[in-house]
Write a structure and sequence with these properties.
The protein has about 725 residues and is α+β, with helices and mostly antiparallel strands. It has 25 helices and 18 strands. A hairpin with a 2-residue loop joins strand 8 (about 155-160) and strand 9 (about 160-170). Bound molecules: adenosine-5'-diphosphate and magnesium ion.
Length: about 725
């Protein structure tokens, strides 16, 4: 065994397995480190409090004097909590979060020291952020970018730093981050959904999008992870033969959580609870070493922040427990990859979930309105929604018959399908009193509050209705949920505005009653959005063919998927909803294309290094041992012995064959990379990486994995799947 592999295994097996499950009430710890309403009530004056509350509710501005007061109180609280620094916490287009810490500590002119933090520092900062990707919005010579306080997501203390969630915009006002467009999309859906909800209840004055994400991840022992260059640099294994035992026995899914892992989870959850992340569910996932964590759902902007914070906290706590967390969508070949289901709904400030069927026909008509409009929105913008979850990592799932396919479709289950079928048959225009009664009692009135399909869900659907929310299943485990949430809320906003206009026209122009008008428009939507509904097996080949007939998009790679982001329809959508300008859209597309290229490029380079510096040298070492053995035979027995060392010679030949294939494929891949790098257009370059380079990865892997099976275990340099994957 190589020295590195031996040391890593020795270190991992000596891990301390003392298990501590924390005890006590989590509700008492909850949000202890958050400057939430409860804290504000305690620390802010009445004026300051109501100003912040207004900003949260309606987006109104907070004036400078009030901001000073808020900053002063925040500082006071943070210092009593042991904080020494503050930072604006933001989401650049890299996909993760960024921070730059400043100490509260300051010096007066006369040399006296004090702790300082005022309104201007709370409200706006100008980080030297010229190295963040901007897709060309900012040239480095005019690199100014500002972060600005987002009062809708409360400040929190992590370790000894007060973190203030902010948006990140350029000097000229364009969003350089993922949060600003999300906030605009949430505002658009609020306005549009509130107007429609008022059809049913005049008291509604705000609608919040809600999000409950489910985070899947792998845990690997830190020493073992560090022993693999591919895991360290790309977050996934580029080589490695499957272990004899994988997930075929289904013995990991929902199984007993291993002690070492439970200890990590317990520590992690405690930290999350203090930070106000309402974690609730934890369990083993399908693949060995794969787990899931899910919180109670929250308002979407806050939920997105909490997911990003969680990923950060997970990294840190894992390190403390000598684990490495792998968020990659496909860290291991031959076993399941990871995703991040986004459960989404709309909730009114009167406490109603607009996607939850109710106990009266009127409530159900409201439910059907939002339900059918969502279906219609997804049907119209299916390709755009799919593009919002495109990434190099997620291509391993969406384009590769694993988890939901690259085709978007909606599963609604038998009961609701029947209801929609019946609604479709409703006659056009005015309804007779009998028709109305029939409709209300026997169609709309019959939707049960708890839907049976809840227990019988279609796991292969990328967008499933699960009783009182839609569940978007294609989101990648590394993703910032802001991206799909921005698209989903924008398209639903756009759709609801169109719906309201059509209903108003029927009422005002054609003299229909409001409920008749609603039925009429919904009936048309049911007819025109049928192709997006699919309750069958999303993994099957038949569906690929059927989806093609239905003219649904099927973009299997990121470069293909990203194209639609700047189509005329997408530009019109985002501009008309005030979510993103053309400049912002083109910039994002450019950044994502570039990120894709860089990720595949890094994988290619690592693979190159693994083949030349690890695999081939090991194969040669072992081949030499066998050759020695053959020569020994010949020395003793001479040529006279029949079939001399036949088995050994076969092994030498096999090693030779795979080694030469391995080298040849790697060299061809390197040439293809050099050619691709000459391209200047980022879409063409990304396509070259997807079509001309990435396919070699599997071929290279094939020969390396064969060599792994031939070469003696004690010589093989890379930690094996069976060693990486079974935490006790
Ligand atoms: P699973 O999909 O694993 O069976 P559940 O259906 O229980 O799990 O819920 C998954 C997630 O859905 C949880 O994170 C939960 O908070 C979230 N969720 C439940 N109701 C809503 C809602 N109205 N809006 C958004 N998310 C929700
Ligand atoms: Mg789920």
């Amino acid at each position: 065994m190589s020295k590195l592999r031996f040391e890593a295994l020795k270190e991992s097996s000596s891990r301390n397995r003392i298990l501590i499950e924390e005890k006590g009430r989590r509700s008492e710890l909850f949000a202890q480190n958050v400057f939430n309403e409860q804290r504000m009530l305690q620390y802010l004056t009445k004026d300051a409090l109501s100003s912040v509350q207004n900003a949260i509710f309606s987006g109104s501005k907070i004036d400078r004097k009030i901001a000073d007061q808020v900053a002063e109180s925040m500082k006071g609280w943070a210092i009593t909590m042991g904080a020494t620094h503050y930072t604006h916490w933001f989401q650049p287009l890299t996909g993760s979060t960024a921070e730059k810490h400043d100490a509260f500590f300051d010096l007066l002119l006369d040399g006296r020291a004090l702790e300082k933090f005022d309104g201007s520092q709370l409200v706006q900062q100008e980080p030297d952020a010229s190295s963040f990707p901007s897709g060309g919005i900012r040239n480095t010579f005019e690199a100014r970018g500002y972060t600005a306080w987002d009062p809708t997501s409360p400040a929190f203390i992590y370790e000894t730093t007060l973190c203030i969630p902010t948006i990140f915009v350029s000097y000229t006002g364009e969003a350089l981050d993922n949060k600003a467009p999300l906030l605009r999309a949430l505002s658009a859906v609020d306005t549009a959904a509130t107007a429609v909800a008022k059809f049913f209840d005049k008291n509604v004055s705000k609608v919040n999008a809600t999000l409950g994400w489910e985070q899947e991840y792998f845990l690997i022992d830190k020493a073992l992870a560090n022993s693999r260059p591919d895991i360290s640099l790309t977050g996934r294994t580029l080589l490695g033969h499957s272990a004899a035992k994988g997930q075929q026995l289904d013995d990991h899914y929902f199984g007993v959580i291993p002690g070492r892992v439970l200890s990590f989870m317990s520590d992690l959850e405690k930290e999350c609870i203090k930070l106000g992340i309402p974690v609730k569910t934890r369990h083993n996932e399908v693949a060995p070493n794969q787990f899931e964590l899910a919180p109670v759902f929250e308002e979407a902007n806050l939920a997105v922040d909490h997911n990003l914070l969680l990923m950060d906290v997970m990294d840190k706590i894992a390190d403390k427990h000598s684990f490495k967390v792998l968020f990659h969508e496909k860290p291991f070949k031959g076993i399941n990859g990871s995703g991040k289901h986004n459960n989404w709904s709309l909730a009114t400030d009167t406490g109603v979930n607009l996607l939850s069927p109710g106990s009266t026909p009127m409530k159900n008509l409201q439910f059907l309105t939002f339900f059918i409009n969502t279906i219609k929105a997804v049907d119209t913008y299916e390709e755009l929604l799919r593009s919002s979850i495109a990434s190099a990592g997620n291509d391993h799932r969406l384009g590769a018959n694993e988890a939901p396919p690259a085709i978007l479709s909606i599963f609604i289950g038998d009961q609701l399908s029947r209801v929609l079928d019946e609604l479709e048959g409703v006659s056009k225009g005015k309804l007779s009193p009998e028709e109305k009664t029939e409709l209300k009692l026997n169609v709309v009135g019959k939707i049960p509050e708890i839907l049976m399909d809840n227990t019988d869900r279609n796991r292969t659907s990328p967008f499933a209705f699960t009783g009182n929310k839609f569940e978007m299943r294609g989101v990648g485990s590394t993703a910032n949920c802001a991206k799909p949430m921005t698209v989903l809320n924008t398209i639903v906003a756009k759709q609801l505005i169109a719906f309201k206009k059509e209903v108003d026209q029927l009422v005002e122009g054609n003299g229909l009653k409001k409920d008749e008008a609603v039925f009429n428009v919904l009936r048309e939507y049911i007819k025109t959005s049928k192709r997006i509904r699919f309750d069958g097996d999303g993994y099957s080949n038949d569906w690929q063919k059927e989806a093609k007939k239905r003219k649904l998009s099927n973009n299997k790679t990121t470069p293909e998927a990203l194209k639609v982001q700047t189509s005329a329809a997408s530009l019109e959508l985002f501009e008309s909803m005030n979510v993103m300008s053309e400049v912002e859209l083109r910039a994002r597309q450019e950044v994502e294309m570039e990120t894709y290229i860089l990720q595949v490029q890094i994988e290619g380079r690592v693979l190159n290094e693994l083949v030349y510096n690890h695999v081939i040298p090991a194969a040669i070492d072992y081949q030499n041992i066998v050759l020695q053995n053959v020569m020994g035979f010949k020395d003793i027995y001479g040529e006279a012995h029949k079939n001399i060392a036949e088995c050994q010679l076969q092994i030498i030949e096999q090693i030779n064959e795979h080694m030469s294939q391995l080298k040849q494929k790697t060299d061809t891949m390197i040439d293809a990379r050099k050619n691709a790098n000459k391209l200047t257009d980022s879409h063409k370059k990304a396509t070259a990486y997807a079509k001309n380079i990435k396919p070699y990865f599997d071929e290279i892997r094939y020969h390396s994995d064969k060599l792994e099976r031939l070469v003696a275990d004690q010589i093989w340099p890379l930690t094996k799947y069976r060693e990486l994957l079974f935490i006790k």
